[in-house]
Amino acid sequence: LPTFQLKAILLGSDLSVVASAEVKFDSDLPEFRTTGGANAGPNKFEFFVQPVMWVKAMDIVLDRLVMQEVDLGTVVAISGSAQQHGSVYWSKHGIAALQSLDSNKFLHAQVDDSAFVVNRTPIWMDASTSKQCLEMETAIGGMSKMVELTGSKCYERFTGPQIRKIYQQRTHAYEDAKHISLVSSFLASLFLGQVAPIDYADGSGMNLLDIRKKKWSKACLNACAPDLEERLGKPVSGFTILGKVSDYFVQRFCFSETCKVIACTGDNPSALAGMIVDQNWLSVSLGTSDTLMMSLLEPPNLEQGHVLCHPTEIEQYMGLLCFRNGSLVREAMNKLEADGNWEKFNELLDSTPRGNFGNMAVHFDEMEIIPKAKGTLRWNKDIDINSEDAKKGIIKFSSPQIEIRALIEGQMLHHRAIAEDMGFLFGSESKILATGGASVNKSILQVIADVFNAPVYQQTESEAALVGAAYRAAYALYINNNDTKDIKSYRDYILSLTPNLLNLVCEPNKDSESIYVPMLQRYRDMASILESQ
Question: In degrees rounded to 5, what are phi and psi of residue 473?
């Protein structure tokens, strides 16, 4: 359940896709008037969804599978992935309705508006809670304390500040909320026929969970809203079997009575589960914003990154870094220097040597997240960090190809520097998994291989979050059915059933490390100048 659609896939016992169906919110459910699956609120930075839309989509998506003559009676386990940070506020009536569903009626006719005390519920796009973020951080002793406890500073889109805003502005609704779900645990609740617990990984995106102890932080709960723990319930591991599927689904859609519901999780952790990579891998998603995902043995205290409980390695953590200046900056450069033609852009990029004759650039067209800086700085090989020229740099490089290479190398040096700061250890075993829109561009991938000094792979399965949910369901069933002594790791078990869907795209050149390690320090100097301006 990402922002724009609800999609279901059924995997066979060999983990290949047997069937799929989807419901696109904007076109299939026009009565909710969404754009990209969300509604803009009345005030600046506000975005919401009516939870009934998601319920109605569930009716439709299962009907579409039945229309394809898919035998849902063969399903042994269900799990899910959902957009992170959104919250759902159950009424007393809603919980009762969930537990006594009539299979002769649609789901949305029973779990309707009256099931929720907040009918316009905030989702991850909502950034209207700056005041609540400040209040929560102040209450627990500052930003660094929040990072240390929950893995992230207070972010406006995170669930804790959103709950606090509802408590402050709609106190009666908060008081009437018997239970608060994340979108992922809401999805599990529909299948379970009762309110499902939140899993550790998705719970890490709330500014409420102590990620080391895997329990709600008392200090954060108190800073957020009163009597919150009883509304959230106890968090659980992502491999928890929550129970059997509700009778409603058995009678209406012919699911088996023994079909198990596994805890659902957020889309970023679920994507990591779907990538079936280990701690030597760094996932680089090249999109509107570039995102890095990694496995970490210890949580770093990095004020601008996110650290979540790992979705599949219970003792590990997952690092998540978002960079605002991604493909939009690449597209703007393409328009300017290559007439918007990507073939020409790649020819120009490939025609310049690695290291770009010492020409480097940092392009932060929008205010970057890490470091917090905006602006453009270009240096040639002669500029010294201590010189007067260092602050202003040079106006423009001498050719389009130097401009293009300086941008791409600069972006990737930036990504590598921050990944190192987060605790990712680059070495001879490191590998890169490239995903997202620009991952089809082999010229850009070659720069990534060289700058990171690591081979770059692509995944043939494009919907990692969705297959990750099914993989987790399969593994939860496996560990539940087997003796603990002989249990394979998550990755080994999944790879024993399915070929690894990763293709090697490019490898680093032998001189990469000697070229880019000195440039990495130079990049850091440039970024700190922009940050201080």
Answer: -60, -45
Q: Where are the beta strands (DSSP E) in 233-346?
A: 241-244, 260-262, 265-266, 281-285, 290-296, 306-309, 317-323
Please identify which residue in the block is written with the tokens 């829109």: 437
- The pair of three-digit structure tokens given for residue 246, joined into one six-digit string: 């509700």
Pairing of strands 281-285, 431-435: parallel
What pLDDT is stored for residue 460 in this prediction?
75
What is the rounded CA–CA span in Å between residue 154 and residue 167? 17
Cα 193 to Cα 9, 82, 163, 425: the distances in Å are 21, 18, 24, 44
DSSP designation for 31: G
Given a cut of 80, is residue 462 above it in pLDDT? no
The answer to whether the CB of 82 falls within 8 A of the CB of 31 is no
Kindly state the average pLDDT of the residues 172-177: 98
- Rounded to whole angstroms, the Cα distance separating 295 from 148 reads 18
Structural tokens at position 115: 């099931």
Three-state SS letters, 87-111: EEEECHHHHHHHHCCCCCCCCCCCC
3-state secondary structure of 134: helix
Question: Which H or E run contains 333?
Answer: helix 327-338
Closest CA to 360 of 428, 319, 410: 410
Instruction: With beta carbons less than 8 A apart as the criterion, state whether 265 and 238 touch.
Output: yes
Question: Which run of H or E residues covers position 476?
Answer: helix 464-481
Please answer whether residues 128 and 45 qualify as being in contact, where contact means their C-beta atoms are separated by less than 8 angstroms: yes
Phi, psi dihedrals of residue 88, rounded to the nearest 5°? -125, 130
Q: Could you say which DSSP state residue 311 is in?
A: S
Per residue, the 3-state secondary structure of 382-446, as one string, reads CCCCCCCHHHHCCCCCCCHHHHHHHHHHHHHHHHHHHHHHHCCCCCCCCEEEEECHHHHCHHHHH
- The C-alpha angle with vertex 347 and arms to 341 and 351, in degrees rounded to 5, equals 150
Positive or negative torsion for Cα 250, 91, 115, 208: negative
> By the 8 A CB rule, do 177 and 171 touch?
no
Find out whether 274 and 468 touch, Cβ atoms under 8 Å: yes
- Helix or strand holding residue 1 (H, E): none
- Bridge partners of 82, per DSSP, are 266
pTM: predicted TM-score of the whole model, two decimal places: 0.92
> Residue 347: which H helix or E strand, with range?
helix 342-350
Is omega for the bond preceding 371 within 30 degrees of 0, making it cis?
Answer: yes
CA angle 418, 285, 16 (to 5 degrees): 135
What was the pLDDT predicted at 289?
84
Residue 456 phi/psi, 5° resolution?
-110, 130
Could you tell me the sign of the dihedral formed by the alpha carbons of 266, 268, 271, 277, in that order? negative
Does residue 76 contact residue 261 with C-beta atoms inside 8 Å?
no
Mean pLDDT for the stretch of residues 1-30: 96
